[in-house]
Amino acid sequence: MNNIVKPVACKILEVKRESLHEYTFKVATDIKPEHGQFLQLSIPKVGEAPISVSSFGDGWMDFTIRSVGKVTDEIFEKQAGDTLFLRGAYGKGWPVEKFQGKHVVVITGGTGLAPVKSMLNMFYDNPDYVKSVTLISGFKNEEGIIFKNDLDKWHDRFTTFYTLDRDQKEGWNTGFVTEFVSKVPFSEFDGDYEVVIVGPPPMMKFTGLEAVKCGVPEEKIWVSFERKMSCAVGKCGHCRIDEVYVCLDGPVFNYTQAKYLVD
């Protein structure tokens, strides 16, 4: 029987700088995650960190990482050819089967674009899977923009609203993502749609409220509740909120439940 908490040594195939603070690490692995799941990345004698999968394919997986602490700082010292330790995949991902044949609205803030990247590319590569995709993606400033090539690609096929919080950039909007929720023609979707929101907790809170204000039923909203996880298998209690274990019951939650997940 496989040990679900045993890390496996994996070779780093490529390191790509995405922005001022984010890098994508392509790692060789045969693990097959679901869209929206996460893995535990570790370095012996340093520690481990839960990181969402941003892309995956046969024999590889991408992790887009922002340097925010001891473990991620050490990961940033790694180069192609070095080793990372992985365990997982863990958690519940996006309910892509539920999205099939519907209009899908995806709203992201900053690095929150990473947990939906693989799903968006699946929609792009399989244009008949959903009726339409509307993508609202915001970043603090131009230096924080990630996945530039993908953003350009998605713009050609999806309805897109790309925005910077306060900066000006040609071809981009200025303002918070909440300001663009009302531009989505929800009434034209005849109720046949789902909404995905990923980003910092305040962004998800106010974007969810804005969506509800625009008439979106709460049960049609999905979020990725990225709260600090430790064991990833529901044993340590580090991510527990009331009776919910984020690592097991999430990280993807329906808004009807997620709105109550407050520490």
UniProtKB/TrEMBL annotation:
Swiss-Prot/TrEMBL GO biological process terms: pyrimidine nucleotide biosynthetic process
Record has Metal-binding as a keyword: yes
Domain FAD-binding FR-type: 5-96
Cofactors (names): [2Fe-2S] cluster
Cofactor, free-text remark: Binds 1 [2Fe-2S] cluster per subunit.
Record keywords, A-Z: 2Fe-2S, Iron, Iron-sulfur, Metal-binding
A single GO molecular function term of this UniProt record: metal ion binding
UniProt-recorded name of the protein: Anaerobic sulfite reductase subunit B
